[in-house]
Task: inverse folding
């Protein structure tokens, strides 16, 4: 029996191992590609980050500009309560001016010293204390003052301030009354009468 060897060394495909230079070249190319990709990704990230920061700065600038405009040009809204209060002040001021004009004109006869009393009361005005009625007779010998307040302790303070005025120095009020208002529960009404005013009554 004869054997035939079909595996001939000539037919064997020889593979050449990679040379050191080729390996270095491939490695270098791979590193360069990876480095390029990483660099490009980092550049894209930085580009987006820069745009985002610029956009945030622009938003902050616009917000700051809007706040400045709101402060410089506030929206004016009419208050009905404020308008009503201003109208009341205007009417009251006109009434006071009219009353002073009548007193100083001699329409009521001897009014010497009347304006001094009114001016003294006006100078010593106290917030949350209002005078509703003032009666001055016989050149100031007889006097009655009526008013109201939300705080009873303001009245002594007001009388102390009136005592500073020259026309009220030595002035004594013989009758003093203070009652709770029937219309406004928080309001206290008071009345002061001089001794001469009390003696003049029958």
Result:
């Amino acid at each position: 029996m004869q054997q035939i060897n079909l595996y001939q060394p000539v037919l064997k495909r020889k593979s050449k191992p990679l040379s050191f230079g080729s390996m270095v070249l491939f490695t270098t190319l791979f590193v360069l590609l990876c480095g390029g990709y990483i660099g490009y990704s980092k550049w894209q990230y930085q580009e987006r980050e820069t745009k985002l920061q610029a956009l945030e700065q622009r938003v902050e600038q616009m917000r700051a500009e809007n706040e400045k405009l709101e402060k410089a040009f506030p929206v004016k809204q009419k208050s009905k309560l404020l308008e009503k209060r201003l109208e009341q002040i205007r009417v009251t001021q006109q009434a006071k001016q009219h009353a002073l004009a009548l007193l100083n004109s001699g329409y009521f006869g001897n009014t010497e010293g009347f304006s001094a009393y009114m001016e003294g009361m006006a100078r010593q005005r106290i917030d949350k204390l209002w005078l509703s009625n003032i009666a001055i007779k016989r050149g100031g010998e007889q006097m009655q003052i009526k008013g109201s307040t939300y705080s009873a302790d303001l009245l002594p303070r007001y009388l102390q301030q009136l005592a500073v005025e020259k026309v009220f120095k030595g002035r004594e009020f013989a009758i003093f009354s203070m009652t709770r208002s029937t219309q406004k529960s928080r309001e206290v009404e008071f009345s002061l009468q001089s001794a001469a005013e009390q003696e003049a009554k029958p």
User: Anything to note?
Assistant: The chain has a mean pLDDT of 74. The first helix runs from residue 20 to 72. The first strand starts at residue 129 and ends at 137. The domain at 114-194 is CATH 3.30.1360 (Gyrase A; domain 2).
